[in-house]
Amino acid sequence: MQDDKMDALLTLSGYPNPFGNTVNLIYTLPENGTVKINVYNSLGELVRKIADGEEMSGKHILEIPTAQLPHGLYTFKMEFSGDKVSDCRLMKMIH
Predict the structure, then answer these.
(1) What CATH number has the domain spanning 4-94?
(2) Which of 22, 73, 85, 93 has the highest CB neighbour number within 10 Å of its CB?
(3) What does pTM read for this prediction?
């Protein structure tokens, strides 16, 4: 028997942590909807927009080049808005 609650989860993870020249973001969407993913430095300044648009439900993997980012702590923020679910996830990673 499958747990429907598990299918409805919005998830965000990344590797490696700490990251070097690239970071891989893995996220799962519970339904089709709008996804925004932004990266902020330790001062809260926006340093990169990764995603901003409509995406299909399911698992997504993005490889993001990060060699030009200065070393430090970064916050990855994912905002999701669908018909039934609207949510946000934060993840901190070190470069």
Answers:
(1) 2.60.40.2550
(2) 93
(3) 0.88
